[in-house]
Amino acid sequence: xxxxxxxxxxxxxxxxxxxxxxxxxxxxxxxxxxxxxxxxxxxxxxxxxxxxxxxxxxxxxxxxxxxxxxxxxxxxxxxxxxxxxxxxxxxxxxxxxxxxxxxxxxxxxxxxxxxxxxxxxxxxxxxxx
Length: 129
Description:
With 129 residues, this protein is α+β, with helices and mostly antiparallel strands. The chain has 5 helices and 4 strands. It has helices spanning 2-17, 50-64, 80-84, 86-92, 97-105; strands at residues 25-34, 94-95, 108-116, 121-128. It has a 4-stranded mixed sheet with strand order 1-3-4-2. Helix 2 packs across helix 5 (97-105). The longest helix is centred in the N-terminal third of the chain and has 16 residues, at 2-17.
């Protein structure tokens, strides 16, 4: 019986000492319409990558006051520095190839969720219908 109690005690100690998994915190959740203005940078050059267009959409919204019907405010990308790191946040997150192509073409509504998992922030982007 002593061995069984020791095994139970050891198992309990392992369970209690194991780190508790933490769910990622949702920092922002917004929708935006990707319009013609979002497809071009401030110098008029056509943007070719979805993260560039999403960044321009947020710059248009927060800095330049350019928005389309359906665009929503977000608490993250009003900061220029946060817009600058959007590319890496998207790479660490997820965006389907088809969604990326749709964003580059424009004329679509996107849903953007920004998460913090404790060690880094990331973004999940989807095209909504």
